[in-house]
UniProtKB/TrEMBL annotation:
Stored Pfam families: Nitroreductase (PF00881)
EC number: 1.-.-.-
Top-level EC class: oxidoreductase
Cofactors (names): FMN
UniProt-recorded name of the protein: Putative NAD(P)H nitroreductase
Length: 192
């Protein structure tokens, strides 16, 4: 793609990816792009855990164990689909947020900063020719999953997984919403 806007407007989520994943130099670019996200108060709330190669499929077991512990086991078809999907994924980045420990900055703002960082990673991966997919499946909202991935349950929040690799199939066109359906103008009230 020839320009920044061609890349930006051409990005789409690509769930089904395979090797090769990003090289170390490409991963460096993706992670540096992440840390260019806005960060009110310079809290640096981003927490990322790299899961690569043969360790990726084990993420399913983490989610399965958390579901059983919560008394809400994942349905077997969902487990089977997750195993099939992750069997080919070369890199997963577990996503976490550590809000301002001093409480100066609202935790929601730190969560937004991590969301912006993930969007930067999605765009960077796309610009490098990779497919990427942000998933909140596999027990993201179950107790124990984030902790199993190394996030401190007392002061960090697990926010899902970012899978990155080479698209298995060429992504097809996707219908995008018209921005006009989501935007309105505001005008100051007239003084009376």
């Amino acid at each position: 793609m020839s320009s920044f806007f061609d890349v930006l407007l051409g990005r789409r989520s690509v769930k089904f990816v395979q090797v090769p994943g990003p090289s170390d130099d490409q991963l460096d670019l993706i992670l540096r792009a992440a840390l260019r996200a806005p960060d009110h108060g310079a809290v640096k709330p981003w927490r990322f855990v790299l899961v690569r190669g043969a360790d990726v499929p084990a993420l399913v077991d983490v989610g399965v164990r958390a579901g059983i512990a919560a008394g809400n086991p994942l349905p077997q078809p969902k487990v089977d689909n997750a195993r099939k999907w992750l069997s080919k994924v070369p890199l997963v980045i577990a996503l976490g947020c550590r809000p301002d420990p001093a409480g100066r900055i609202p935790a929601d703002e730190s969560m937004l900063a991590v969301g912006a960082a993930v969007m930067n990673m999605l765009n960077a991966a796309h610009a490098l020719g990779f497919g990427a997919f942000w998933s909140t499946g596999l027990g993201t909202y179950l107790d124990g999953v984030g902790e199993a991935l190394g996030f401190d349950p007392l002061d960090e929040r697990f926010m899902g997984y970012l899978a990155i690799g080479t698209p298995i199939d060429a992504p097809g066109p996707v219908e995008r919403p018209d921005w006009r359906d989501h935007v309105s103008d505001w005008h100051a009230p007239a003084n009376t």
